[in-house]
């Protein structure tokens, strides 16, 4: 039941006192809107300033009394610990939303993309009666939204493999839907009549599907599923319309985004998208909804955040020990407010949480490996394929070693590659317009690029001499990743004799820098070598030189 207090409630219980506090006896405080140092101070000051209740001989400040009550001088940490451990009352198991039997597999199957909620489409019988009507079949979802979802605390379904918190390190979850099953809601393109205008209809497209790694969600895909499904194009030329929507939560257990993350899961998956929009089913090879680590790689995702007003009752006993209880809450589900006013965007919302100290930079970087940003599907696909030992355009059976360089993010990048000590070498790039030709017996006079007349000089006295030069097809490329430098050995033990050289120009081609990749058992690092590149004319460039690669 929903209820609120209009003013702070102060209850004084006349019992034996604790000498260290200015307020004698046990007492209770009511914190309105949220549990924070500010609301705790406001409530306690009403007692502290009451001449009847305050011990005249006490010289403590409000902060000193609160430090005694919380057991720490760090009031922020003390309040967070107190309210994170609050009695939340009767929490609601997630299974009760969809099914009366908590042992039923309905909820698990639903999140994997199954059950009649996902699989059926409304139809009209010969009698004229409508059947398989989503609003009837899932009527409990709408009732739950109007009640416990907005005024209660739902339990996170940690027992489902989709949402095991010890494997949900990013602190984010997402759903992705490929189908719309409901007409008349102004979302997707499912229209009436259902029998001929709502078969395999699409949701509103808000993302590009890059790939599905079927190893990520073993509890949701068929046993033995393996491999990577790459979706190279978009919309009608690729995966079709896909709609993804997610949410994230703070590492702080007292933050509303954490406490009500299960409420948000219900809202995003069952209410806002299924009953209100008709979005259903899973992308092949992945669950429909899960922690982000199990979901497909996409370019972006919409996002919902929790906004809530809470009332907490803080009880302090005669020994000065405090406990907290949540007595009421009022939850609103809103579009995420992201960094730089980039709203309704999961990646931008996480960036804001990082700035506010709720999520770590490492968690954000992990998210960016799954939500990769607009137009970044090609890079993500090459990166995941290379990690799986799949190098497109290069037969990995032909090469003993495949090495992947990190991405280079710069407007103009001028480079070259040579390999010494190998019998064969090849390279590829995630940038479609950049290719490499292998030139044997590298020496002075070799053209540096496929589209310019620059030539190399000074090669004779370097270890590149007589090696293999991998000539780039273009002398300047922007925002690409040099990928998959591959080679094979002349002799079995030649690994210790192989050297890579990456030519990175700085400012002018005549002032080029050659960097040696030194390979050790634990890392690969770049170190200065000697200028090699000579130009027939001067071309000014801007390039980023990364000084180390681990």
Structural class: alpha+beta
Beta-strand segment tally: 25
Reported for the largest beta sheet, the result is: 7 strands, mixed
Shape: flat
The total count of helices amounts to: 15
Strand content: 15-25%
Distance between the termini: 56 Å
Indicate the low-confidence ranges by residue numbers: 1-19, 479-484, 487-500, 504-550
As a whole number of angstroms, the C-alpha radius of gyration is: 31 Å
Helix content: 10-25%
Arithmetic mean pLDDT: 78
3D architecture notes:
The chain is flat and about 95 Å long. The chain contains 15 helices and 25 strands. Strand 23 and strand 24 form a beta hairpin. Helix 2 crosses helix 3 (75-84) and helix 8 (139-146) crosses helix 12 (261-275). With 550 residues, the protein is of the alpha+beta class. The two termini are 56 Å apart. Strands 1, 2, 5, 9, 11, 13 and 14 form a 7-stranded mixed beta sheet that branches. Strands 18-20-16-22-23-24 form a 6-stranded antiparallel beta sheet, with no helix packed on it. The chain has helices at residues 37-48, 62-70, 75-84, 95-98, 106-111, 116-119, 134-137, 139-146, 148-151, 194-197, 256-259, 261-275, 346-355, 361-368, 377-387; strands spanning 10-13, 26-31, 123-124, 130-131, 172-177, 179-180, 209-213, 228-230, 243-248, 279-280, 289-291, 297-298, 302-316, 322-335, 401-403, 415-420, 422-429, 436-439, 455-456, 468-472, 482-489, 499-506, 508-519, 524-528, 533-534.
């Amino acid at each position: 039941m929903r209820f609120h207090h209009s003013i702070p409630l102060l209850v004084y219980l006349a019992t034996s006192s604790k000498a260290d506090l200015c307020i004698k006896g046990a007492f209770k405080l009511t914190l309105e809107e949220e549990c924070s140092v500010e609301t705790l101070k406001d409530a306690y000051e009403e007692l502290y300033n009451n001449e009847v209740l305050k011990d005249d001989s006490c010289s403590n400040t409000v902060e000193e009394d609160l430090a005694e009550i919380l057991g720490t001088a760090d009031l922020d940490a003390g309040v967070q610990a107190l309210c994170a451990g609050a009695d939340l009352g009767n929490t609601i198991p997630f299974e009760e939303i969809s099914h009366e039997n908590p042992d039923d597999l309905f909820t698990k199957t639903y999140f994997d993309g199954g059950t009649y909620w996902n699989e059926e489409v409304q139809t009209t019988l010969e009698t004229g009666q409508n059947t398989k009507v989503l609003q009837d079949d899932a009527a409990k979802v709408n009732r739950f939204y109007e009640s416990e979802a907005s005024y209660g605390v739902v339990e996170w379904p940690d027992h489902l493999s989709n949402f095991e918190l010890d494997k949900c390190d990013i602190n984010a979850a997402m759903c992705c839907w490929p189908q719309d099953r409901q007409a008349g809601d102004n979302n997707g393109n499912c229209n009436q009549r259902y029998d001929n205008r709502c078969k395999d209809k699409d949701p509103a497209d808000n993302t590009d599907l890059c790939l599905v790694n079927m190893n990520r969600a073993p509890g949701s895909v068929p046993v033995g599923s393996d491999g990577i499904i790459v979706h190279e194009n978009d919309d009608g030329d690729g995966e079709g319309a896909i709609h993804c929507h997610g949410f994230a939560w703070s590492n702080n257990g007292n933050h509303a985004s954490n406490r009500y993350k299960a409420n948000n899961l219900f809202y995003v998956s069952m209410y806002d998208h299924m009953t209100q929009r008709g979005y259903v089913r899973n992308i092949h090879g992945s669950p429909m909804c899960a922690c982000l680590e199990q979901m497909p790689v996409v370019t972006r995702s919409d996002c919902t955040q929790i906004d809530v007003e809470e009332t907490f009752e803080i009880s302090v006993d005669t020994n000065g020990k405090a406990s907290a209880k949540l007595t009421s809450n009022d939850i609103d589900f809103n579009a995420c407010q992201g960094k730089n006013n980039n709203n309704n965007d999961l990646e931008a919302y996480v960036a804001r949480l990082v700035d506010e100290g709720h999520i770590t930079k490492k968690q954000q970087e992990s998210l960016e490996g799954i939500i990769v940003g607009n137009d970044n599907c090609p890079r993500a696909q090459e990166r995941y394929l290379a990690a799986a030992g799949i190098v497109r355009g290069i037969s990995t059976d032909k090469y003993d070693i495949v090495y992947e360089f990190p991405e280079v993010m710069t407007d103009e990048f001028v480079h070259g590659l040579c390999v010494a000590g190998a019998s064969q070498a090849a390279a590829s790039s995630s940038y479609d317009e950049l290719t490499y030709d292998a030139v044997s017996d590298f020496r002075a006079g070799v053209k540096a690029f496929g589209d310019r007349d620059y030539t190399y000089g000074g090669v004779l006295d370097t270890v590149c001499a007589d090696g293999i030069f991998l000539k780039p097809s273009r002398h300047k490329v922007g925002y690409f990743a040099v990928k998959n430098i591959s080679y094979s050995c002349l002799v079995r033990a030649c690994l210790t004799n192989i050297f890579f050289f990456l030519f990175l120009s700085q400012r002018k081609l005549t002032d080029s820098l050659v960097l040696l990749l030194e390979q050790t058992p634990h890392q690969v690092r770049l170190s200065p070598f000697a200028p090699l590149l000579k130009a027939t004319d001067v071309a000014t460039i801007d390039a980023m030189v990364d000084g180390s690669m681990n």
